[in-house]
Amino acid sequence: MIITGDDPKYIAFFKARLLRYFLGIEVSYTSDGFYISQEKYIQDLLTRVALGDERTIETPMEINVRLRATDGDPLPDPTRYRHLGRSLVYLAVTRPDISYPVHILSQFMSAPTSVHYSHLLRVLRYVRGTISRRLFFPSSSSLQLQTYSDATWASDPSDRESLSDYCVFLGGSLIAWKTKKQIADSRSSVEAEL
């Protein structure tokens, strides 16, 4: 028996085997493409954190915040900060909007302070308010790659190093993004963006 691509048995067979949930990442399909999100992962994380209020915040981090290792009092037990920080790093897999603040806050994992922790809770409140955000990958997307990058110049107040970030689109779909400290010191903003 030969089964063709438009045969109802063929369609039912493959629909039953489509990826729906894997390692905390949810996948949903439409006729226009598919979505990936981590809504259940966020709900589980917020349940574990138990913030104690229902406030949400419009942005994950205040503009022009310059955090230093010496800001605030050291946390008596940094275990909770590290756990939440690692959870947010994993959440950034599907949430490019928190990539930058998570990068900044991850730098203080070894010795977090009360100020760093309050900023971490701000990111969690932002995520709670934007829990349904997801990435969309349209089936009609072109195969053209577009890359955008940006850099700061000596923006880290502790070591004066620059930050670089980039995002890569395949057609209209965001497929990769990253924020990181630059390895070399830049002497100008032009060098920082190279």
Show unreliable segments.
none
- Overall number of domains: 2
User: Which bin fits the share of residues in helices?
Assistant: 25-40%
Molecular shape = globular
**Neighbour order of strands in the largest sheet:** 1-2-3-4
H/E series: HEEEHHHHEEEEH
Q: Compute the CA-based radius of gyration.
A: 20 Å
Strand content: 15-25%
Count of extended strands: 7
Could you list some keywords that capture this structure?
2 domains, 3-stranded antiparallel beta sheet, 7 strands, alpha+beta, single chain, 31% helix, 6 helices
Helices and strands, with pairings:
Layout: H1 8-15, E1 21-22, E2 25-30, E3 33-37, H2 39-49, H3 79-91, H4 99-106, H5 114-129, E4 135-138, E5 145-151, E6 163-170, E7 173-181, H6 189-192
Antiparallel strand pairs: 1-2, 2-3, 3-4, 5-6, 6-7
